[in-house]
Amino acid sequence: MNCAVGMGSHGRPSIGGRRNTGHGGVGGQTAAATGSWRRRTGVQLHFIMPGRPMQNGYIESFKGNLRDECWNENWFLDLADTRRKICDWKWD
User: Fold this and answer.
1) If DSSP codes are grouped into helix, strand and coil, which group holds residue 58?
2) Exposed e or buried b for every residue in 49-84, given b needs 16+ CB within 10 A?
3) Cβ contact 5:91 at 8 Å
4) What are the backbone dihedrals phi and psi of residue 29, each rounded to the nearest 5 degrees, phi first?
5) Digits of tens for pLDDT over the chain (92 positions)?
6) Burial class (CB in 10 A: 0-12, 13-18, 19+), 37
7) pTM of the prediction?
8) DSSP H/E element including 18
């Protein structure tokens, strides 16, 4: 089963979603790479207000389900094992 379905299949989103501006956000090289990708693709970021995660309740719900149903239930051996288990969870 292939979990690598992305922009090639669905096209570029017009809005890259909302981003939390708190301390758990993206930093360093990841932020630079994200900014570079965003400028190349024309995707816009919309920031949520600090301390207001329910402004993006969909992703907060997804993260909770992923944590409870996948991360807390599995022991990951390496990156390939992690990808396989998350893919299995996604299609379960």
Assistant:
1) helix
2) eeeeeeebeeeeeeeeeeeeebeeeeeeeeeeeeee
3) no
4) -65, -35
5) 555 544 455 555 554 554 554 445 555 778 888 888 888 988 887 777 777 777 778 888 888 999 999 999 999 999 999 999 999 998 88
6) exposed
7) 0.46
8) strand 15-19
- Residues paired with residue 47 on neighbouring β-strands, in sequence order: 19
Structure tokens at 58: 């969909």
Backbone Cα Rg of the chain: 15
Amino acid at 41: T
Both tokens assigned to 30: 């990841």
